[in-house]
Specification:
This protein is about 55% helix and about 0% strand. It has three helices and no strands. The protein is globular.
C-alpha cells in the first residue's frame, strides 16, 4: 500500500459540494477518495497542459 500523508485542504464551498455530490453519486465513501481519484486521473493524463494551462477559475473575478 502506498504511503499516505494527511493534508489540510482549502477549497470553495461549491467545490466541496461538488466533491460531496460525487461521493453520493458514485458511492465513494469520502471526499478524500473523490479527490484522490481526480488526482490519479490528472496524473495519468497524457496532456497536462489541457488541464492546467486553460484558465477555468469559477471563483475569480478576472
Amino acid at each position: 500500500m502506498p504511503t499516505r500523508v494527511v493534508i489540510l485542504q482549502r477549497r470553495e464551498l461549491q467545490q466541496d459540494k461538488y466533491l460531496q455530490d460525487l461521493v453520493v453519486k458514485y458511492g465513494l465513501g469520502s471526499k478524500d477518495k473523490a479527490t484522490r481519484l481526480l488526482l490519479d486521473y490528472v496524473m495519468a493524463s497524457t496532456n497536462e497542459a489541457t488541464i492546467f494551462k486553460v484558465k477555468r477559475c469559477r471563483n475569480c473575478n478576472s
